[in-house]
Design brief:
By secondary structure, the protein is an all-alpha fold. It contains 15 helices and no strands. Helix 2 packs across helix 4, helix 3 runs antiparallel to helix 14 and helix 9 packs antiparallel against helix 13. About 40% of the residues are buried.
Length: about 350
Amino acid sequence: MTRRELDAADITDPALRVAYTHCRRLNARHGRTYFLATRLLPVERRSAVHALYGFARWADDIVDDLDRHRTPDERDRLLRRLESDLAHGLRTGAGTDTGAGTRDGAGTQNASGDQPVVRAVADTASRYDIEHTLFADFLASMRSDLHITDYPTYADLRAYMHGSAAVIGLQMLPVLGTVTSREEAAPHAADLGVAFQLTNFLRDVGEDLDRGRVYLPADLLAAHGVDRSLLEWSRRTGRADARIRGALVAAEDMTRKVYRAAEPGIAMLDPRTRPCIRTAFTLYGGILDAIAEQDYSVLHRRAVVSRGRRAATAAAGIVGISRARWSARASRRTSTAGVTALPRKGPVR
């Protein structure tokens, strides 16, 4: 499947093919929902999405998962190195090779140097004319995770999510294509990125707390009598609290409002890419449903969408793809018929 995707995207350079393949593996390993939805895209666009996701995943791993013993200063240096490599890649269309990193058993670069994700994402940005500032904003939010652990208000959280989530939707927009102007679709794409991340924040409250972070706005929590110490108590003891449940319900309501703001943008996309985004929209909304079904026990267990629901949603996406293809073929037939008929009918009056 990887070879087919690369061939369809006209990615012929051997080093780039290796880089894109690496990003696809990252997506398959870490982003089950994204990966499932991506498989519903036209084959020639999948590699670009893997590159964008792979870059975001790599930066996120530097912040949270790459060698847990690293200090914040060490992580900051790695992020700045990644930013420098990316800036070079965006200027030249390729990653840098400084020899500073070490290679793992798969032959890919670890902490720095000629990172496959940089090669792939720089190539994707060039092919689809993605604004470079979107990547800079993303990395700025990633760096803020190294020293900011709480958000006093929703406005503060939204400012962070511009870089960590909204820009992801904006990066995706040129790859997905639109039937309206890109400017008209952009606010909805940004909202969808935010909705997905708010869903992650709600699902991962316990895991984030273990890392010392609380993403839910402090003013929302305080309105229900909740603070960090109460969350930590519940996480530690495994006991529920009605105040925490009330705050989580409010956070769910807040998130669903963002989904509603994002949804009109799906109809603005290229018909061939709508099934992918509709599937991701439904699956991520399903996480909110799972949280509610588990009575908001996110401090004690992770809410997941069942395999059956995931399969049913994917099947609906496949039906959507078939309809889009049939519609496109019908449109082409109609257009061709119209062109050939005109000479026989004479001038159209």
